[in-house]
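Give me the 3D structure for Arsenate reductase ArsC.
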Amino acid sequence: MIRILFLCTGNSCRSQMAEGWLKHLRPDDFEVYSAGIEAHGLNPYAVQVMAEASIDISQQLSQTVDQLPERQFEYVITVCDHANEVCPVFPAKTKFIHHSFEDPPKLAANASNEEEALSCYRKVCEDIKQFVQEIDSALI
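Predicted structure for Arsenate reductase ArsC (140 residues):
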């Protein structure tokens, strides 16, 4: 099984969604983790939009790289620019891929109501789903 880590700044939205999608779509092909440079806690809107797609991420942990049970990954995929810029050191054999997604909380910052905010999360969730569906072409 190929071991993949999705890494972002706070491990609250984008990396959590990516972990959920890959576990859902390819459970037999990948061992999937997510982490952040920091741990900001699981974002409830991220949980909600994933639940709308019938994927439960509510039990996933918001954690830092240092809290991971394992540091040996074939791939580390950074899903935001900040994580890409300050990515921790991993063993030399680890391959790095950067694919930045918009930050849902920033997109939703000026939303006038909850539904408008959720639509921002849904957009990013769909973008991440599309990336994960085509992950084989991203792996180098």
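Strands lie at 2-8, 30-36, 75-78, 95-98. Let me know if you want a second pass.
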